Description:
five-stranded parallel sheet; 3 domains; 490 residues; Serine Threonine Protein Phosphatase 5, Tetratricopeptide repeat; 21 helices; two-stranded antiparallel ribbon
Amino acid sequence: MKRVIYVGHDQLNSSYGALKGADPKSDLIVLVESARMVTGSNWNKVRLYFLISCAHHFAKELTDSGFKVIYQKAATTVDGLKQVRAEHGDLPIIAATPNSFRLSKALADFGVTFIENDLFLTPKELFTAWAESQKSYLMENFYRGQRIRLNILVENGKPVGGAWNFDKENRSPLPKGYTFPPYLEHKSDEIDQMVAKQLGIEPNTTWTTNRVGAKKVLKNFLDNHFENFGPYEDAMTSDNWALHHSLLSPYLNNGLLHPSEVVDAAVKRFKKGDIPIQSAEGFIRQIIGWREYVNGMYWYLGQDYKELNHLKANRKLLPLFNDPDKTKMNCIKTTVSDINQRGWVAHIPRLMLLSNLALITGTNPQQFLQWMREVFIDAADWVMVPNVIGMGVHADNGVMMTKPYAAGGAYISKMSNYCKGCVYDPKLRTGDAACPFTTLYWDFLDRNIEEFKGNHRMAQQLFGINRLKDMDQVRQRAKAVLTGLDNGLI
Ligand code: SF4
C-alpha cells in the first residue's frame, strides 16, 4: 500500500472527496470511530445508530469492490490514524478537507494532506469572494447567483416561472383533513442490528443506512411529495411527523447523496411538467441556496462566531429540551418527543418552536447550540453554528439575519394544529392559561426594546408593544412562566 485515505463519517461517497480516483492496489481506506464521537456528548442514540451503521455499510461496499478497508475504533480520530500507521507503516495520509474547524486543525497538525472537499457545490474561495462583495450577507442574493452560476431553473438569464422566489405562495397551513402519502420504512440488516445492539437500542426503521436506500428515499420524495412540498413547507401538524419534506438532509450531510444528483433529479422531474414551480423552486432553494449558504457562512465567519452571545442570554437550558414530560406546551412536547424518537423534525419547528423558545426565554446560545448538535440526526457543526447562533437566537447581533425570528402563539396557532390540544390559549398573554410563547414574545421585545429600537425591520413589532395597556401584567406573568419553565412545570 502506498497511502492511506481517511474517510470521515460525513464523507461517505466514493465518487467525490478523497475517494475520487482511489486505487484498490495502492490505497488503504481508513474510517475511524472515535470515542469522542460516540460517548463525548449526550448524543441522541438514533443519530449515533445512523452515522455508525452508514459508515459500516459504506466500508463493506468498498471492501466488496476490492479495497482494503480498516474500520478503526480509537479515543480520537488522530489516535485511530496513529494505530493504523503503527500497524501498516508510516504511509502518507490524504483526506478531503474535513467539515469542521476542530477536525481540520487536528488532522492538519497530524500531517494529513487535504484535497478539495467537493461534497458541496460551492468552493470556499468562491463563497468568500461573494461574501466579501456584500454589504449584508443576504441568502437571497447568494441564491440568485447560484441559480445563474449553476444554470438551474434559468432561461436566457431569467428565472423560470418569472420570479426567483415563490416564498409568498409557500406559507399555507394544512387544509382540514389533509392526508399524506406514506413514507418509506427501512428493513434492518445484520449490520444495523449489530450497531443497534452495541448502542442498546432497536434498529431504527425511519432511516436507511446505505446509498441504495437513500436513492429510494429521493425517488419516493420526487414521486409522492415533491408536487405539494412548496405550499405546505412551513406548516406543522401533530398528525404527521414528516409532512411533504424530503427527509434527505441526513444522507446529504453524511455523503450518501451528493447535492448535484438531488438537484439534477429534481430539475428532471420538474421538466416533466406536473410539478408546480413554487414546489420546484422552494426545494431547489434549500439545496443550492440555504445549504450552501450555511456551509459557506460557517467557514467565512470563523471559529469564534459560535461563542457569540450578543443579547447576553444566560438562562440554563430548559429541562423540557431533554424531557418532553417537563412541559405542558403541546407544540414543544410533541416536537421534543418526535426528536427523541427519530432524531429529526422539519426546519420550521426547529426555528419557530425550539429556537424561538430559546430566544424569547433568553436561553444561553452555547448551551442551546450544544443541545441542537446532540439531538438531530443531520446536525453537524457547519449546519448548527450559523443556524442557531445567527438565525435561531440572534446571538450575532444580526450578522446573518437582520431581525430575530421571535414569534408568539398566534403564528404557531395559524401554522399548526398544536394549540387545539393544548392547556394554554395562544390568544392570551396574561393569566394562568396564557400561552407561554405569547407572554414571552412581548416580554422579550420589552426586555430588548433599547436593543431593537434602531432596527427598522422591528419597527412594527415595537409599535405593537407600545399599544399594549397590560404590559405590567405581561411582565408579571412572564416571570412566573420563566420560573415555571426552569422547573419543568409550564
Ligand atoms: Fe404551543 Fe402556545 Fe399553542 Fe400551546 S397554546 S400549543 S404552548 S403555541
